[in-house]
Structures are given as C-alpha cells and as structure tokens.
Specification:
By secondary structure, this protein is an alpha/beta fold. The chain is built from 16 helices and 12 strands. The two termini are 39 Å apart. The C terminus is likely disordered.
C-alpha cells in the first residue's frame, strides 16, 4: 500500500439521482482547495457543503454538488476522507473522476482498498471486513442481520478472548524459557493445562455448532423429488410464484435439475426440481435421474412428492432410511376421497394441491421453522467463512499437541502456532503483546 490519496465511485455506475465519490488519504482535503471555492482550512468536519465543483486545470464547472469531509482518525479508513455527493449521470461521474486523476499524488483506488486501509489503520478487524462484504451482498433479512452482528464484533470478541488466553499462556512460557534454572510452579502448570483443555472444548464446540454458515450466504438446498407426473414442476412454480419449470402430462418432461432461488422468511433457499424417479431406458433421462439422486443425498431438506391418487408414500422408504430432514407431500389431494385423505394423513403426509395452491404456505412455513431452529443454535457466534473453520482446526491441532512433558521451547511453539492460527482470522499478531505481558509484571525501575 502506497501513500497516495485514492478515489473511487462508491455507488453503482449509471443513471441515478445521486452518486457518491469517496476520496481518502493525506491530500483528500485538497479537493476543497483545488476543485471548489471553499478553503480546506475552513471546512468543518462532518459538515455538508453545497458547492459547485470544477476541474482544477481547466476551471470548467462539472456539477453542483454536496461535499463533506472527515478528518483522521474519525473516518471510515482512519485517514482524511472527503465524500463528493454529485448527480448520478455517467457524464458527471466520468468528468469528476477524470478531474481527480489530474490532482498530484491521486490515483484510482484498487478493489477493496478503502476497507484495506481501514484495517491497516485499526478501524476494523478482518471479521468486520468480512461482515461488511456480506452486508453489501445481503439479499435477505437473515443475511443482513448476520452481517450486521459480525460487523458489530460478535465473532471478533469471541476469537479475541481465546487469543488473549493463548497470549497470556505464551507469556508465562516465554518467561520460563528466559529463566531455565527456574522450575514452573505446579499451580502454574495446572492453570496452563486447564486453560488449554477448556479452549479445546470451547473451539471444538464452536466448530460443531456451526453447520449453516455457507448456507446463509449461498442458500439452503431444498430438493423436490418424486416419480414422474407427481407435480414437481407445478409445486416449484407455486412456491416461487412464477413459471421456472415446464409443466406437462408427458412423463419425463424434466430431464435436468432446475434451480430457483427464493427468500423464505429471510432465509435464502434454492429449490431444485429434479427428473422423475423411475426406471428408464432413455440415456439422457438416466443422467437426469442420477443427478436427482445425488441432489437428494446432498440436500439440506427434501420434499418427497407423490401423486395422492395413484402412488403410496413407501416409494421413498429407501431415501428416508438414509436419514436427513424431509417432508412427505401428497399432491393432487383435490382428486381423492375423504377416506384416502385420512389414510395419507395417518402416514404422516401433508395433503397439497400444487395446481390449486392448496397448503403451499404450509410447506414454506415448515421450511422456515426448520431453518430458524438451526439458525438459532448457531446465530450467537456464527462462522460465516470457511477460512475461519480452517484456522480454528489448525489452532485445535496445535493445542492438542501441547503438553508440558516435552521441552518447554516446543510446548511454547505449540501455543504460539495456535495463537497465530486465530490471528489469521482477525488479522491480529501477538509478538508485541507477548512482550507487553512479560514486562508489565516487572517493577518500574527494572
């Protein structure tokens, strides 16, 4: 990262009422001096100024806009920052960006560079940066809620508390390495070993409880499967409230897996309409059936759909025995007798009519309740990145190798590596902290 002042459009490029161009760096406030009639020295922090903005070279007026400045360290990046709120036409945006490029030591920001500078300047840790990225990409309320919680420091506070315990242990061990003639007191040995044991339990539990982090970002997989002509395509169309699958009475119409993205009570869900499960000699249909079986095996939730009039639910026994979360749905319930309805309900089936939109909301309500239940189990400290899990597994591996029966230098290295593994998540390193821990216990005159 160089010391140049960076600038970039922070809103989407295109026709809009307002566009925001952000400038950050030591020369940011020179925008006031060189592109407006307002002196930078007179610009009050966080005060919006209505002004004309012009090209510093040609003095041509570019727009009538609003400027606001944030002096370091009280800005997003921790540097001097100016935000230009201009009209959102492509011509205005281009002209202002070109004028900024002509200013000395200004350059266009790289992707993510404002957040990178905020991290380097201590304005956010890496988990907060990940949370910000997730908030920008959020499409559902649950994604928004999770991202805001992470930006607020939920994960950072948890991981930092573990890291601080490791740093404290490492400080003890480093001190005894420096004084090899001193034996480690037994109560200190017990305290260190007990702390390691508790950390292993806490981290292991945290990993085990987090099973939905990727699903919250990418979507839960719900697969609709069943025999041909059960109404799978009609059901997926009814759920998503648009025609995403071809509906036909011809068996084998759906030969591939069709996916549709839906927001269910804030949870992102990908519904998959699969090829009808049956014995077929058609090579292409066989491929579709194979894909359907793979989808069923990997689904977060299965909807096993069958024709209430002509099929029995036991055709799914093989899949049910394999385990997983599922719902048995008897379609075309509008065509069967009251006795048949009672029989199917007794077997645990939900009676629906995809054609008449009957009980479709019951399916989505059950899915929402299921997703909510597993979300609540992990939401307090939800891992939202696979790299967090990898780092924590690396930390666990080092903690499980630790013991004070081996050379103290090797034991200290196990703790140091465990500490650094957690540091990979938050972006914190421990060298100076260890020294602070060691020397903070010295007398003032030492």
């Amino acid at each position: 990262m160089d010391n140049k002042t960076i600038y970039a459009l922070s809103t989407l490029f295109g026709k809009s009422g307002i566009a925001v161009i952000r400038v950050s760096g030591k020369a940011a406030f020179s925008v006031f001096d060189k592109m407006t009639n307002i002196a930078a020295s007179a610009a009050v922090d966080r005060k919006m100024y209505h002004t004309r903005i012009f090209d510093a070279v040609s003095h041509e007026t570019l727009d009538d806009c609003l400027l606001v400045g944030f002096r370091a360290p009280n800005s997003f990046t921790g540097e001097d920052t100016v935000e230009i709120n201009c009209h959102g036409s492509k011509a205005v945006i281009r002209s202002i960006l070109e004028a900024l490029s002509a200013l000395p030591d200004f350059r266009l920001a790289e992707a993510g560079e404002f957040s990178r500078r905020a991290f380097y300047n201590g304005k956010m840790d890496l988990t907060a940066a990940d949370g910000l990225a997730d908030l920008i990409d959020a499409e559902t309320k649950i994604q928004q809620k999770t991202a805001l919680r992470q930006m607020g420091g939920t994960l950072f506070n948890l991981y930092e508390s573990w890291r601080e315990e490791l740093v404290a242990m490492l400080a003890y061990l480093e001190a005894f390495i420096d004084f090899p003639d001193e034996e480690i007191p037994q109560d200190t040995v017990f305290k260190i070993e007990n702390t390691v044991f508790k950390l292993i339990e806490a981290i292991s539990g945290h990993i085990a409880d987090n099973k939905i982090e990727e699903r919250l970002r990418d979507g839960f997989q719900v697969v609709i499967s069943g025999p041909t002509n059960a109404g799978k395509s009609s059901l997926i169309n009814a759920i998503v409230k648009r025609n995403v699958a071809i509906v036909s009475d011809i068996a084998g119409t759906t030969r591939d897996v069709i996916d549709a993205y839906v927001d269910i009570n804030g949870f992102p869900v990908i519904f998959s309409d699969t090829a009808g499960l049956r014995d077929s000699t058609d090579a292409i249909e066989q491929i579709g059936i194979k894909l359907a079986r793979e989808k069923i095996a990997n689904a977060d939730f299965n909807i096993f759909l069958f024709d209430a009039e002509n099929t029995e639910p036991d055709i799914f026994d093989e899949y049910i025995r394999a385990g997983g979360n599922f719902l048995l749905a008897a379609n075309k319930a509008d065509k069967i007798s009251a006795e048949r309805k009672a029989e199917l309900v007794a077997k645990g089936c939900l009676l629906i009519s995809a054609k008449n939109n009957e009980n479709i909301s019951v399916i989505t309500d059950r899915l929402a309740a299921y997703f909510e239940s597993i979300y609540q189990q992990s939401s307090a400290s939800l891992m939202t990145r696979h790299r967090y899990k990898e780092a924590l597994l690396e930390c666990l591996d080092n903690l499980q190798r630790f013991n004070l029966q081996k050379e103290i230098e090797l034991a200290a290295e196990d703790i140091r590596l465990a500490c650094r593994a957690i540091g990979k998540i938050t972006g914190r390193v421990e060298v100076d902290e260890i020294l602070d821990k060691i020397f903070s216990s010295f007398c003032i005159g030492k």
